[in-house]
User: Which sequence fits this backbone?
């Protein structure tokens, strides 16, 4: 993962070099949303699915809810933190 300024996007995953580039300096909540969004791209890519079949707009709206759900549910967030230790 690299911190790097992006043109017109906050984060981008390149399946060719398997690199995730994230724009520096954004709010923590926005960073959380973007990380989940980009993770979704990686999951989709690794499972040989095409975003075009799902739609980028729909992906953005749906995946960003990961961050919102976790922010509103501290117990769930803690549980997930523990799972990732
Ligand atoms: Zn996207």
Assistant:
């Amino acid at each position: 993962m690299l911190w790097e300024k992006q043109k017109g996007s906050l984060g981008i995953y390149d399946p060719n070099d398997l690199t995730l580039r994230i724009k520096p300096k954004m709010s923590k909540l926005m960073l959380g949303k973007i990380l989940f969004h980009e993770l979704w791209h990686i999951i989709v890519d690794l499972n040989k699915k095409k975003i075009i079949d799902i739609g980028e707009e729909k992906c953005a709206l749906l995946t960003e809810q990961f961050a919102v759900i976790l922010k509103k549910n501290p117990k769930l967030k803690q549980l997930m933190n523990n799972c990732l230790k």
User: Anything to note?
Assistant: The chain has one domain: 2-83.
